[in-house]
Design brief:
The chain is mainly α. Helix content is 53%, strand content 3%. A hairpin with an 8-residue loop joins strand 1 and strand 2. The N terminus is likely disordered.
Length: 133
């Protein structure tokens, strides 16, 4: 929102030039603005590329199983959830110390904080979530 309380005009293409030059209502030149395409983190190829080698075989096993089940509309939601979870796994596994922290959590030796201490209104949020069910 501008200083005058108005929303700036959307950019428009200036007529009469090959390809045009992107301008706004105030005629500021935006020709150097570029938009980079973003990748879908739930794309199986992105997940495979980002996953550590040790995780790829399990991902592919679960992915192929979910793809087979996705022929049924109910199975499609499972495939979407699976890709979401594996995209998060790829992000987490790429962080330094991930496998050490995972091992410590499994062994019960990880440093933890009670959820109610980490999230001040946790009790109220959990109760509200239960009430919505």
């Amino acid at each position: 929102m501008g200083r005058d309380g108005l929303v700036p005009a959307l950019p428009r293409l200036r007529p009469g030039r090959c390809g045009g030059s992107l301008r706004t209502a105030g005629e500021r030149n935006l020709s150097h603005v570029t938009a980079q395409p973003t990748e879908d983190p739930a794309d199986p190829l992105v997940i495979l590329r980002e996953l550590p080698e040790r995780e790829r075989e399990e991902f592919l096993r679960q992915y192929h199983q979910a793809v087979d089940a996705a022929h049924d509309p109910a199975g499609y939601q499972h495939l979407r959830r699976l890709l979401h979870v594996w995209s998060l796994t790829a992000i987490a596994a790429g962080q330094p110390g991930y496998y050490e922290e995972l091992a410590a959590a499994r062994a019960g030796t990880a440093t933890t904080v009670p959820v109610a201490d980490a999230i001040p209104d946790w009790t109220e949020r959990a109760a509200a979530a239960r009430d919505r069910r």
